[in-house]
Every structure is written in structure tokens, then in C-alpha cells.
Design goal:
Blueprint (H helix, E strand, L loop, with lengths): L11 E7 L3 H12 L3 E7 L3 H10 L4 E3 L2 H4 L8 E4 L6 H11 L5 E4 L5 H11 L6 E2 L1 E3 L20 E4 L7 H13 L3 E4 L2 H27 L4 H7 L2 H7 L6 H10 L1 H23 L3 H33 E8 L5 E4 L5 H13 L1 E7 L5 H12 L3 E6 L2 E7 L11 E2 L4 H12 L5 E4 L10 H9 L3 E3 L8 E4 L4 E2 L2 E3 L5 H11 L2 E2 L1 E5 L7 H8 L4 E4 L2 E5 L8 E3 L4 H13 L4 E8 L6 H8 L3 E10 L2 E9 L20 H10 L3 E4 L12 H11 L3 E5 L2 E5 L6 E4 L4 H10 L7 E4 L11 H7 L3 E8 L1
Parallel strand pairs: 1-2, 1-4, 2-3, 4-5, 5-6, 8-9, 11-26, 12-25, 15-16, 19-21, 20-22, 32-33
Antiparallel strand pairs: 7-8, 10-33, 10-34, 12-14, 13-14, 16-18, 17-18, 22-24, 23-24, 26-28, 27-28, 29-31, 30-31
Helix pairs in contact: 4-5, 7-11, 13-14, 13-18, 15-17, 16-17, 19-21, 19-23, 21-22, 21-23
The chain binds shikimate-3-phosphate.
Shikimate-3-phosphate (S3P) binds next to helix 17.
Length: 749
């Protein structure tokens, strides 16, 4: 192969591949194509194989055995043994005879223990020049004609070096693999063999066994004629090379037998369950397995996403000229979704939820209960089935419960967990880890809970198991549905009557849902009371669309001439409609239609039409009722004529971000006069310009500024919008479908 001046000099001098099956031929092909060696030499006992390889141009030279060329090899030369596992032994003997100790040697066998045993027998030790390796790539096709120069791209290659393996030999082998596109990792020999027995070897034996069993049953043509997708998916690997898999089975006997025994025990129990029509057992196993499989899929996706997000950021670019017209249904209510999982889990019997929000926050709650042993099916297009374990049925999760970005998950769960018999720890992402938790930890402590925050009152929350909580009568110093709900959930496990009094009305989904589960509670004016010792009975829950997500489209329609939008099936619980009251006061035309009650929650279709808006003093009575909607309301204020003033809303400073500061900074960048105060903001309506604003990793800030783009004079770029997935994963699609000009841009950090 001639060197050319404009291509980099190859790292390797001579690359010798012994055995030109699928793997050997693919390495040769990948190395030739990428010019990784000055010479690629193929060795095979079959001359027909060598001829095919030469003809295909995947090797430059051929030899029938190592003794022909071995004497010419030295440092910078690499020999790769690519023969079936049990033949590696005889090839290593040839290496011992014909190669000096400068030549690097590696292999590709799927079992590493047997290779190390062979090399130690032949050399008397593991020589420095030997680097055991295993590419986790392949296909059911085999032979030189199956060579694929991209076979290793993106696949893992495991190297299992010995303590004595020479650095220079290890790096030469690692470089070859990374140059052909593989991801190289190192591992101990025993770990490799155990892991591969479970993840690769066993599936092959199951596939062989299934096909063999079916093939020996009756008329196999008939059976195979009707064997559809499942059979095909499951048995693709039964078309693999029998010699290779016989060798692997024999070389990795002990690890394979260990995992085979486990599967056989499981299989016998499964057979028993089918024989005795034990549907509950079957659902249990299938759901657990399905969730584990989905989790594995997500890990795979996540791996890419994580690798991606280390270097990339998701921005939204919104261009002017859009509108908000048409009918739409936004995803399910976040607060109700959280509570449906919590109460469904500690209820007896099954709870079927429809309209569940598949956002990261509510999924964090769902995962926490799975971690505590609750069987939960779904979510599947908003449908979730929770198999309740009863008041005392939660199990020790054995690990910290991860709440992601979700304050509601952490605060409500802290109450529920304070009365369990096991210890727990609640952790979250960076934003949640800086949010105040003493608001729940203090009253829980007065109930006797053993709950500890970090020194500054933030997460992690450590909760010691405690079966002897005492009821309290708590006067909440701040209007918080999260604190109220936390204490009511703790009250379910406390001795006596727990009461919570609130200074202003806050969302009452917990109270409504407890009633829906048949639990007796008393609500009088601003005080809620419940006794412990009752039972929750599994029920059906229809989660309405989230008014907090709908709010962005209410504002979008309200500020854009020519807009007219219908938001369907939105929850209009009186404790949540502050946004409607405030926008109406600013002059927006909002009509509630088809009002009804679904599962104890009021629901309506909401029509919003454009109107000229005027600035107002927002009544403090509306603050708790619109607490999550202020970022959107501030955009309406920026488009209104005159001044809008908010007071009494210091709580906004400790949400997912400091929403007063974040909105005021962004509005100023866009040319709107905004003056933050300790407990609110003053916004003077004007013309929205264009520019780049920060979301501060806060979903609602990101969506609010996206809506502002409708009235901007140029593009608005909202930076770092990945967190929109916590409450509204489909935001961009839905926004585009009603007429916003919004695009996702991925940028390098
Ligand atoms: C929530 C209550 C509110 C709200 C949060 C969800 C709930 O918080 O901001 O997004 O589901 O109970 P506070 O109760 O702390 O105001």
C-alpha cells in the first residue's frame, strides 16, 4: 500500500490478522479503508478465503501460517488472533514459537478466562506483549464475505489487561480499536466473563434452544410458516456460527451455568404460575421485566443524550409573525398526577389513571414508588395502573430516592415517608438541592418525625423510620399547598387528628383526591382535618389538562392580534384559576364552556380571544391561586398598556429559579422596563424587542419567553430549554401546531 503525502502516516507498520471470519475480515477491512497500517496481512489455512480477501482488497498480503512471516515482525507490528475460542490455544503456541517479545499480540475471543489460562500454560506467565480483548460487536452472518468496515463503529471493545501488560502494547491495541470507531473500556477478566455470560452467551443459548425445540415439533414447516415478529426478533441470533458458540459454551462453563441456573428456576416458577392460572404472578414478572427493559432502553438513549448534553444545549428560537389559533389539549395536570401515584400506591386495590402527565417531575414520583416496591403499569399514552400496596405496604427502597427537579415530589413525599417503618433519603437536581425544605421539616419534626435537612435547610432530606408520629394542629405561616399536603399525608400515619390551617386558599387537590379514595376528611373554611387509621380504596382518576401549561397559550392568544384559541378539558378548580381572574381583569376575553366535574375536579373548555390589554395592580388574593402562572402573566403585562404591579409574591423567589429576577432580567434584555421588588415586580408595558434571554434552567421561564416571541420585533432566543420536559415535554410541537414560529436549536456549549 503506497504512502501518500497528504494522508497521515499509519501508526502500525504491519497488521497481521489470523483468521478471516466475520470479525477478522472486518478488522482487516476497517484498517485498510482507514489506512491504519502500512501493510495488512491475512493468515488463513484456507487458500480460498485468502483469495477472496485479496480480491475484495481488505488485505494487502496473505500467508498460510505464522511461521512464514513471524520472523519479520517487531515493534509497531500487531498480531490479532481472530479464530474460534478453542482454537486460540493452538494459535498462541505458534505465536510463542515464531514471534519475538516486541510484537504486540491481542485476541478477540468472547471468553477471556480460558485465553488467559492458555497463554499462561504456553508461556509460563502472561507476557507483557499480550493484550486480551473482546469486541462486543458481530452479526449472525459469518465468513470473509460478511466483512463490514463499519462493524465496530460505536460498539464497545473490552480489554482485560494483566497487571504486567506493557503500556506500549496496551495503547497500540486500544488505538487500533478507537481508530476503527469502537469505544474502548478495560475490565477484570472474571467480571468480563460473568457479565458476558449473562448478556451475550445466555441469550444465544436460549435462542438456539427455542428454535431447536420448535424445529423438532410436528410439522416444522407449518410452525415456521406462522412464526411471526416475536419469533424472528427472539431467534435472529440462532443463525450464528455453531462452532464459535460451542467453543464459548465450553470455555465459559462456570459463569454460564450460574446464570442458566437462575433462569431455569425462574422458568419453572413461571411454568407453575401458568399451570395454576396465577395471573397476578404473571403480571408482576412481566411488568417488572418490561420496566427493566424500558429502563435499559432509556439508559441507552440517556447515554447518548447525556453524552450529547455534556457538549450541547437546547435553545428555543421564536420568530415573530406567529399566532395562536385552533383547538388544543395540553398535557395532564402535574399536581394531580403526582398525587394520583402517591395515593394510588398506598391504597388497597387497583387505581387506574388516565391523562397522567408524562413529564419528568411526575415520572420522578412514579419511579420513587416503584423503588418502594409498588407495581405500576405504564405510563402508556397517559394511562397508568397502580397496584396499591395498602397503607403499610411500602418497602425500603435501599437507595436514595431521586426527585429530579420536582419540589412537589420531595415535599409531599417527606410527609408520607415520615411515618414509614424504614429510613429514606430524598435527593434532587441542582435546582431542587437549593430549595427550602425547613417549611416541611419543622412541622414534621413537631409531629415527632426524625427528618434532617442539610445545614442550610435544603436537600438532601434524611428521614428515619418512625411508627409513632403524633398529630398536630398546624397554623401554616405561608400559603403552601405542598406544606399542607405533606402534613395531611403524614397525618394518615399519626396518632390523633391532624389539622392544617392555611392563611389563604391554596390548591386543594389532595383533599379532593383523599375523598375520591374514600378517606374521611373534614374541610371547614381554611382548616382541613383528618384522622389516621382509615383506608384508601383504589379508584379511577381522570387527570384534566394542566391549567399551568394552558396558561402559556391563554397569554399567547391574549397578546396576538387575530388569535382565538380553544383549550380543551382544562382543570378549573377554583384554587387554580388565578390566571383566568387576572387576565380577565387585564381585559382578556376568556369564556369557560362545557363546564363539568370529572372525578371530583371541575373541568371546562376555555376560549381565549385577543384583546387590547391594560396594566393592573394584581390583587394579593390571587397570588396563591396563580403562583405557577406568573412568568406567563408577566409577558401579558409586558404587552399591556400601562403598569402592572405584583406584590405579596416573595414565594416566586424560591421556585425552580428566582422567577422575579429571571423574568425581570429577561424582560429588560427585550427592552421592557421591569423593576423587581422583594416580593414582586412592576412591569411597564411596551414594545418587545429581540435578543437572547436565559431560562435559568426553569421550564416556566423558558415557555414564557417563547410566548413573548409572538409580539417581538425580531427573533427571541431562549437559552437552555431542556427543563421544559419536566412539565410539558410536547410544548414545541403543540406551540407550533397552533401557529407559533418556534424552533429547537442545539448549540455547542
Ligand atoms: C404545588 C403547589 C405549589 C406550586 C407547585 C405545585 C402542589 O407550590 O407552586 O408547582 O402540587 O402542591 P406551593 O404550595 O409551595 O406554593
Amino acid at each position: 500500500m503506497p504512502d501518500s503525502s497528504d494522508t497521515p502516516k499509519p501508526t502500525l507498520n504491519q497488521l497481521v490478522i489470523i483468521g478471516l471470519g466475520l470479525i477478522g475480515a472486518s478488522i482487516a477491512s476497517a484498517a485498510s479503508k482507514r489506512r491504519l497500517a502500512r501493510k495488512v496481512i491475512g493468515i488463513s489455512r484456507r487458500s480460498s478465503t485468502l483469495e477472496l480477501a485479496l480480491e475484495a482488497g481488505i488485505i494487502d498480503y496473505s500467508a498460510s501460517s505464522l511461521d512464514v512471516i513471524g520472523g519479520n515482525l517487531g515493534s509497531d507490528d500487531l498480531v490479532v488472533i481472530c479464530v474460534p475460542t478453542l482454537t486460540v490455544n493452538s494459535v498462541l503456541q505458534e505465536c510463542h514459537l515464531h514471534l519475538n517479545n516486541e510484537v504486540t499480540i491481542t485476541d478477540v475471543a468472547s471468553v477471556k478466562g480460558s485465553v488467559i489460562e492458555a497463554v499462561t500454560q504456553i508461556y509460563g506467565f502472561v507476557p507483557e506483549q499480550f493484550v486480551p480483548g473482546h469486541p462486543i460487536a458481530g452479526s449472525e452472518r459469518n465468513g470473509v464475505t460478511a466483512a463490514d468496515h463499519d462493524l465496530f463503529t460505536g460498539h464497545r471493545v473490552v480489554l482485560t489487561p494483566d497487571l504486567k501488560t506493557g503500556e506500549e502494547h496496551l495503547s497500540l491495541v486500544a488505538k487500533l480499536w478507537s481508530d476503527v470507531g469502537a469505544l474502548v473500556s478495560t475490565m477484570a477478566v472474571e467480571d468480563h466473563d460473568e457479565i458476558l455470560a449473562a448478556t451475550s452467551h445466555l441469550p444465544h443459548f436460549l435462542a438456539y434452544s427455542l428454535v431447536d425445540t420448535l424445529a423438532s415439533m410436528g410439522d416444522k414447516n407449518e410452525i415456521f410458516k406462522f412464526a411471526a415478529g416475536g419469533f424472528r426478533d427472539f431467534t435472529r441470533i440462532a443463525a450464528s456460527d455453531p462452532v464459535m458458540w460451542r467453543d464459548i459454551a465450553l470455555a465459559n462453563r462456570s459463569s454460564i451455568l450460574d446464570v442458566l441456573d437462575k433462569v431455569m428456576i425462574n422458568f419453572v416458577t413461571l411454568r407453575g404460575a401458568i399451570a395454576s392460572a396465577n395471573g397476578e404472578y404473571l403480571i408482576d414478572v412481566f411488568t417488572r421485566a418490561r420496566d427493566a427493559r424500558n429502563y435499559f432502553g432509556k439508559l441507552e438513549e440517556g447515554k447518548e443524550l447525556r453524552e450529547y448534553s455534556v457538549t450541547k444545549t437546547t435553545n428555543f428560537r421564536v420568530s415573530p409573525g406567529g399566532h395562536a389559533r385552533g383547538h388544543l389539549r395540553v398535557p395532564g395536570d402535574k399536581s394531580i398526577s403526582h398525587r394520583s401515584i402517591m395515593l394510588g400506591s398506598i391504597a388497597t386495590g387497583m387505581t387506574e389513571i388516565n391523562g397522567f402527565l408524562e413529564g419528568e417531575d411526575s415520572l420522578a414520583t412514579l419511579q420513587a414508588f416503584r423503588d418502594m416496591g409498588v407495581l405500576i403499569e405504564g405510563p402508556d399514552q397517559g394511562r397508568v395502573v397502580v397496584h396499591g400496596v395498602g397503607m403499610q405496604g411500602l418497602k425500603d427502597p435501599q437507595k436514595a430516592l431521586y426527585m429530579g427537579n420536582s419540589g412537589t415530589s420531595m415535599r409531599l413525599l417527606s410527609g408520607l415517608l415520615a411515618g414509614q417503618g424504614f429510613d429514606t433519603e430524598l435527593i434532587g437536581d441542582d435546582s431542587l438541592s437549593s430549595r427550602p425544605m425547613t417549611r416541611v421539616a419543622n412541622p414534621l419534626s413537631s409531629m415527632g418525625a426524625l427528618i434532617f435537612t442539610a445545614e442550610d435547610g435544603t436537600p438532601p432530606l434524611k428521614i428515619k423510620g418512625n411508627n409513632s408520629l403524633k398529630a398536630i394542629d398546624y397554623d401554616m405561616p405561608l400559603a403552601s399547598a405542598q406544606v399542607k399536603s405533606c402534613l395531611l399525608l403524614a397525618g394518615l400515619y399519626a396518632q390523633g387528628e391532624t389539622s392544617v390551617t392555611e392563611p389563604a386558599p391554596t390548591r386543594d387537590h389532595t383533599e379532593r383526591m383523599l375523598k375520591g379514595f374514600g378517606y374521611g376528611i373534614k374541610v371547614a373554611d381554611n382548616k382541613v382535618t383528618l384522622d389516621s387509621g382509615g383506608e384508601l380504596k383504589g379508584t379511577r382518576i381522570d387527570v384534566p389538562a394542566d391549567i399551568s401549561s394552558a396558561a402559556f397559550f391563554m397569554v399567547a392568544a391574549a397578546i396576538t392580534p387575530g388569535s382565538d384559541i380553544m383549550l380543551e378539558h382544562v382543570g378549573v378548580n377554583p384554587t387554580r384559576i388565578g390566571v383566568i381572574n387576572i387576565l380577565r381583569q387585564m381585559g382578556v376575553m376568556i369564556t369557560l364552556m362545557n363546564k363539568r366535574e370529572v372525578g371530583g375536579e371541575p373541568v371546562a373548555d376555555i376560549r381565549v380571544q385577543y384583546a387590547e390589554l391594560k396594566g393592573i395592580d394584581i390583587p394579593e388574593s390571587q397570588v396563591a391561586l396563580a403562583i405557577d402562572e406568573f412568568p406567563a402573566i408577566f409577558i401579558a403585562a409586558a404587552c399591556a398598556d400601562g403598569v402592572t404591579c405584583l406584590t405579596g409574591a416573595e414565594e416566586l423567589r424560591v421556585k425552580e429559579s428566582d422567577r422575579i429576577q429571571a423574568m425581570s432580567d429577561g424582560l429588560s434584555i427585550l427592552g421592557i422596563e421591569a423593576e423587581p421588588t422583594l416580593d414582586g415586580i412592576k412591569i411597564i408595558g411596551g414594545k418587545i424587542g429581540s435578543g437572547r434571554v436565559l431560562s435559568h434552567h426553569d421550564h416556566r421561564i423558558a415557555m414564557a419567553f417563547s410566548v413573548a416571541g409572538l409580539r417581538a420585533q425580531g427573533d427571541i432566543i431562549v437559552e437552555d430549554c431542556g427543563n421544559v420536559a419536566t412539565s410539558f415535554p410536547s410544548f414545541v410541537d403543540i406551540a407550533s401546531s397552533v401557529g407559533l414560529n418556534i424552533n429547537i436549536e442545539v448549540s455547542n456549549d
